[in-house]
Amino acid sequence: MFPIRDHNPSERTPYVTICLIIINIVMFVLTTPWLVGMTGLWEQLALYPVAVVNGYNLWGLFSHMFLHAGILHIAGNMLFLWVFGDNLEDQMGHVGFLIFYLLSGLAAAAAQIASNPLDGIPMVGASGAIAGVMGGYLLLFPKARVDVLALIIIFIKIFTIPAWVMLGLWFLFQIFGSFSLFGGDNVAYWAHAGGFVAGAIFALPIFFRLGGLAYWSRTHGRPPHPAVSYSRSRIPQVRR
């Protein structure tokens, strides 16, 4: 399942979310072999767990968040960031959201390093930080309506489900993957799971400032502004 939109766009322009997407796209263009081709920059800025453990290339803890290993990798990450980032930025403020995002990415990197500190394979991608965004979103807006695109063999279907269902299933998949049930796919499952949990924890101060359980009761677990309804199709139905 892939989230394609939620039904609660933010009321303010999510400048930080937009800037993060732009920076990631620019870095992808610069470091991709079949585009600009600055692959040496990619190698220098990636995160190498064994190097960090030994005190080298520490900048990789942050710089890896802006690198991606392929067009599907960056497209998926930026889609998730766009869907879930705007409402969180709306509640945290621009600066607060940026700090939250970077701390979530750092926590995700720490979780991946802890799982295999002697790993020399480079780790790249914004997915750990974005997992933190998803964890924070789950805490603040568990009942927000999210449209997901489901691929079932050859059929494509769009469903509207509560955020807690989509994000909960995604988190469980990362936990299962962390224990190598889907091993061999070079996915940093521990970074995803660690970033998700860290994001939920980092969002707790905002949650309590907004009123905690009273905030859920007041907003019914959704972003605190009117929802948007999307039409399923622009094609008119013709009866026989």
Can you describe what's shown?
The mean pLDDT is 88. The protein has eleven helices and three strands. It is mainly α and 240 residues long. A hairpin with a 2-residue loop joins strand 2 and strand 3 (155-162). The protein is globular and about 55 Å long. Helix 7 crosses helix 9 (189-202).
Task: Please write out the topology.
Elements: E1 2-6, H1 15-31, H2 39-45, H3 49-53, H4 60-63, H5 71-92, H6 94-115, H7 127-140, E2 145-152, E3 155-162, H8 163-178, H9 189-202, H10 204-210, H11 213-219
Antiparallel strand pairs: 1-2, 2-3
Gyration radius (Cα, Å) is: 19 Å
Give me the count of strands: 3
Count the DSSP helices. 11
Beta-strand content bin: 5-15%
> Which strands sit side by side, in order, in the main sheet?
1-2-3
Biggest sheet descriptor: 3 strands, antiparallel
Fraction of helical residues: 55-70%
Low-confidence stretches: none
General shape: globular
Write down the secondary-structure element order.
Answer: EHHHHHHHEEHHHH
Report the mean per-residue pLDDT as an integer.
Answer: 88
What kind of assembly state do the chains in view correspond to? single chain
